[in-house]
Amino acid sequence: MDKKYIVANWKMNPQTWAEAEQILDFVDDYLGSLGESKEFSLIFCPPFVFLEEAGKVLKTSHFEHEAFLGAQDIFWEDTGADTGEISGPMLNKLGAEYVIVGHSERRWKLGEPDETVNKKLKAILRNAMVPIVCVGERVRDGNFKEFLKEQVEKTFAGLTPDDIGKCIIAYEPVWAISSNPGARPDTPESAIESIHMIREVLIGNWKLEIGNLPKVLYGGSVTSKNAADFIGQKEIDGILVGGASVNKDEFVKILSQI
Ligand code: PGA
């Protein structure tokens, strides 16, 4: 069986490198206690300011070959006068192998449209990194399937089937993300229904073959209490963990469910 992906999206946390290092050290000790039997690949996505240091830590000790570095965003141009932005070549130099793109906090809080997500997605591929592409409906209403279909179509527009096969998709219903008022996790059953639908759109529109389908993860209020319910499903290739990934005890508890 393929290893499951566990993506730790630290968002704008923690506040200091000392705290970040504590989380990584704690997880490293846990990996050491597992010996050879790891059923997961870890991708840590710290804030930009910790990428360089985190990258060094991930190359040492029990992390080596088990844990990878990811960024939380990218700019779509590789060079230019773009104040405040970070380019693909810069991320490459820091050792980032994955980049989250289209996270709902950027789509909805910062107004990033599908077209922008699409340009960023192409920049990640152009710079030989793996996009972790977030998609998900904002509300679960009668139209949510149409919304999701259109979002997937616009997000992946212009990509070849091969390029889409290189991506990881994170299905994250926005209403399930812990930072939203009243958030509650989706159920594995309904997440699988949406994941099926996403795969059908990719197969229908891009003629993707079953063997070339991207991995699809679930994200949204994943904790140690429900991680096993999602991870245990063969249709779900992993989880994207936000809030719980910066709580070292909770994150290791999540890993212990796999
Ligand atoms: P959450 O965040 O696990 O805190 O709900 C997930 C995400 O926003 O990616």
From TrEMBL:
Q: Which domain of life is it from?
A: Bacteria
EC class (word):
isomerase
Q: Can you provide one Gene Ontology molecular function annotated for this UniProt record?
A: triose-phosphate isomerase activity
Give the family from UniProt.
Answer: Belongs to the triosephosphate isomerase family.
Which GO terms of the cellular component aspect does the record hold? cytosol
Q: Which organism is it from?
A: Candidatus Yanofskybacteria bacterium RIFCSPLOWO2_12_FULL_43_11b
What is the predominant subcellular site recorded for this chain? cytoplasm
Q: State the reactions this protein catalyses.
A: D-glyceraldehyde 3-phosphate = dihydroxyacetone phosphate
Q: What is this protein called?
A: Triosephosphate isomerase
Isomerase keyword on record: yes
Q: Which compartments does it reside in?
A: Cytoplasm
Q: Does the keyword Isomerase apply?
A: yes
Q: Please give the InterPro entries that the UniProt record associates with this protein.
A: Aldolase_TIM, TIM_sf, Triosephosphate_isomerase
Q: How would you summarize the oligomeric state and partners of this protein?
A: Homodimer.
What's the Enzyme Commission number for this chain?
Answer: 5.3.1.1
UniProt entry keywords in alphabetical sequence: Cytoplasm, Gluconeogenesis, Glycolysis, Isomerase
> One Pfam family name from the record?
TIM
Q: In which pathway does it act?
A: Carbohydrate degradation; glycolysis; D-glyceraldehyde 3-phosphate from glycerone phosphate: step 1/1; Carbohydrate biosynthesis; gluconeogenesis
Enumerate the SUPFAM superfamilies for this protein: Triosephosphate isomerase (TIM)
The GO annotation for biological process reads: gluconeogenesis; glyceraldehyde-3-phosphate biosynthetic process; glycerol catabolic process; glycolytic process
